[in-house]
Amino acid sequence: MINLLKNRRSIRKFTDETVSKEDLQKILKAGLLSPSSMGKNPVEFIVIQDKEIIAKLEECKKFGTMPLKTSPLVICILADSELSDVWVEDASIVSILMQLEVEKLGLGSTWIQIRNRECSEGDSQEAVRKVLSIPKKYGVLSLIAIGHKNEEKKPYTDEDLDFEKVHYENFNDKNN
User: Fold this and answer.
1) CA 100 from chain center: how many Å?
2) Secondary structure string (H, E, C) spanning 85-133
């Protein structure tokens, strides 16, 4: 697992090659198997492969949508906010577990934050809801851009880890 985490990097450039149906199913299974608070499973997905729809999603956020320009696959991560008051946490778990499965498959991905972001027309969540016909009760956390990597990034190393952020027993104790 540590090697998988070290190798998973945000990929913002993808080739034209589509993601296979088999790989898509594995990515979706990773999301569907993700844990959720009290087993409520409020998270749902919208799989987008239509280039015109992906282009519309680019307009739903002011910055950070460059990966959508080349991504052949986007998965919108949303959750029923009426079903769970911790839908953000549940959707976050789903998002990262799907990204780890993407890396395991040798593909690339990046998380495009939608919640609490803005676009030229206002709130990014509202803009995505409009493009994808999402009911109001669903919170939209992120768009995960997925595809075959068209850029190389070095894996993280142990030297990249900041153990100064680790505290033992209380915030003031960093020795162990």
Assistant:
1) 10
2) CCHHHHHHHHHHHHHHHHHHCCCEEEEEECCCCEECCEEHHHHHHHHHC
In single-letter form, the type of residue at position 45 comes to F
Q: Which pTM does this prediction carry?
A: 0.94
**Site of tokens 């994808």:** 132
Average pLDDT over residues 13-35: 97
Segments in the chain forming alpha helices (H): 2-7, 21-32, 51-58, 87-104, 124-132
Q: How sure is the predictor about 105, in pLDDT bands with cuts at 50, 70 and 90?
A: very high
**Rounded Cα distance, 62 and 170, in Å:** 40
Alpha-carbon Rg of the chain, whole angstroms? 17
